Amino acid sequence: MEPDRMIQFQSGSLNVHIIPSKTFKTTTFNIQLNAPLTKETATKRALLSHILQNSTADYPSRQQLRSALEELYGASLTSDVTKKGEHHIVSIRMDIANEKFLKDQTPLMEEGIKLLSSVLLNPNEENGKFNDKVVEEEKRTLAQKISSVYDDKMRYANKRLTEEMCQDEPFGVHVLGYEEDLQAITSHALYDYYHEVLKKDKIDLYIMGDVEEKEIRSFITRYFPTDQTDKGENHQLIERSPIKLKDTPNEVVEEQSVQQGKLHIGYRTDVLYGDDDYFAMQLFNGIFGGFSHSKLFINVREKASLAYYAASRVESFKGLLIVMSGIQSSHYKKASDIIFKQMEEMKHGNFTEEDIVQTKAVYKNQILETMDVPRGRIELEYQNELTENPIPLNEWIERTDSVTKEDIVNVAKKITLDTVYFLKGKEEVTK
Amino acid sequence: MTKQTFDQLQETLHFDKLPNGLHVYVLPKKGFNKTFATFTTKYGSIDNHFVPLGEEEPLRVPDGIAHFLEHKLFEDEEGDVFQEFSKKGASANAFTSFNRTAYLFSSTMNIEDNLETLMNFVQKPYFTDESVDKEKGIIEQEIKMYEDNPDWQNFFGLLKAMFKEHPVGIDIAGTVESINQTTKDLLYTCYKTFYHPGNMVLFIVGNVEPEKILQQVRQNQENKTFPEPEDIQRVTVKEPTEVDEKKVVIPMAVNTGKCLVGIKEHRHDKQGEDLLKQELSIQLLLEMMFGQSSENYQALYEQGLIDDTFSFDYTGEYGFGFSVIGGDSKNPEALGNTIKTMISDFLQQPINKDVVERIRKKKIGYFLKAMNSPEFIANQFTRYRFNDMDLFHVIPMLEALTTESLQETLNDHFNVDTQMSQCLIVPDGEAQRG
């Protein structure tokens, strides 16, 4: 299916992307602030994401801002930070009902854009710094969030694997930053950093819904004036950092009083989004561990009954492949042997044409389904802003179809084992 | 076939009740690539005591068997049903809740084939001793995964505190011990009793032609034979009105504590419009009390007792109901006590009409947003259907709620002296920072 055409234009330093669609009852906005991922800025960016979504100059308290959103028929406003490879992205999202489904014709769209603009451009500032009280509150919340990564063992194992694997690379920096850095950030320094973000970050604004281009253009001109957004630096892509291969794979074992062990295995693929063999890599992952018909699911779960989940995913902007499984601690060797064996099978081309056809079908289905969700569609489009080799969405299906078995075996051969991380449970623990 | 049109939402729902008792709904969604279908039986973890079809004596089955059955249906003589779906580009899944088990697929291609697979595998049980045994290892790991999940432990810890006899307090997957008592024969007994088409709903939402797809479903069902539908006799236990325990504390390997406060519903015979009204009223009241725009939220946040994991919800079903409020906290003890005080204080004040209007708008907007999601529509519609409620009455019902009726519900539900329990998750001592 041909995706709806995207309209793009520049307004100041703002790259605006409009995706008109009559499918949804809401309009989705997404502002993406992109900068390199570094240890120095990670914590500030995570904190800034919290500050911006919780108060503005017009609505200085959380309570006032949230009341204003509720008046706009429960417009949702959220912000978070993610990493895409060695990019650190602050996203600010808003979903707002399309007024044509309401009994009273409130001008929701305009009010929504106005509010979104004040979140980005008109924060709760006083005397050249953010409001101290707000900063202190959000520091506390972020500190708690950083510390509770430990509580979700799957997330914790992922974080530990990444730290071990990419110790000397920006990718090893945690997306939420660090508690020890957090306490040192002053409201003044953060406000300065906020201006640096506006000046240096690559800023993309996505709008998806039943909207008129002309109307959107006039709202953008009015509420995101170019004198506030045009500072004219920035906008370069982040360079591909050289991969560091280890001479021998690293093995890290930690112990906690948990019921289930977490086995997370990191491989290097050196295949990034935009590369020629990107789709071959996606299909490799699909056959290996991406879906419920994959080798890991069949062999670790269905045949050996060692796990409830055994899956793999690719980190498309860093060139990593991560395997995750929850197992009984005493089955560490048994489970990892099965996983390693599946990787060998892939490298030797021990999978069938039928496996490929099946995986292509499921992968294509996944792409099309992602397009049915505004947030998903925007994510797919945004990937093209992060690569030197953009792939238009309407070419994805075709490029997937043209992948051959040879292509898949070739990417398989490039994959090298880097780190095995095992969070081991204490055997005696009983409930 | 009947057709119901909802002008404001611009949706049309198609319905047919087949001769074998199956309810089929189709909601066409233009513009979507995907079609989503759920095939759901009114049978969940709480249905652990019943009279098996064709017998006279009630049977108490092992905990977690509805969920076990859900796992096992995915296997047939030829092997794994997931394979059938993925060959046709679909992704399939299933879930078991307190009172229903749903099987589903979503796909952007081969819709007819995938729908055939869905109807056929759910209506064709195939269990062997060997495959039942093999599944025990998998479910054991699923249970262990949840045992390490502090949010899940917090939630079930709270349910166990609130309910003394009712099976809603039993973990949906059961225990390692109970799943080991599960046998092939018991699975067949449960299947025969609860998987009759008369106890099931099929919901299809997506870019489909309603008449064509209904015709396919009719054809598929006509080719199968089922016994005459019979009423299912479920054995219910007598649950005390008041909560069982007021407070439970669970130590776990976590850095951050958690606190959930529960209010146990004492009216559990409501169905249909009454239940819909009850559910929406309490959800609206909870928003007024603890929503992000409330004085209470502001105060809890400023005192550092909550972070953005704080949330609340009300669940109302036939036979049980509860409100849950809480989230992560570095002082779960203080959070629990403060929530209790805040509820008591809220009961003393008159309901603010402006706030009601604002929250009403918010909930209407949220409902519109949820209508973008085929998953939400299919799952919620079915849940509502099993309680004789109608998803498409949500907006009119929200609009009809009055301050007076809200006041009544408020006084009726939020009795913190007898209906309230707390469950706290606290760090077990070995936890580390970072």
UniProtKB/TrEMBL annotation, chain B:
One of its GO terms (molecular function) is metal ion binding. It comes from the Bacteria. Residues 63-175 form the Peptidase M16 N-terminal domain. Transmembrane segments: none annotated. Residues 183-362 form the Peptidase M16 C-terminal domain. Signal peptide: none annotated. Gene3D superfamilies: Metalloenzyme, LuxS/M16 peptidase-like (3.30.830.10). PANTHER family: METALLOPROTEASE, ZINC-DEPENDENT PROTEASE. This is Insulinase family protein.
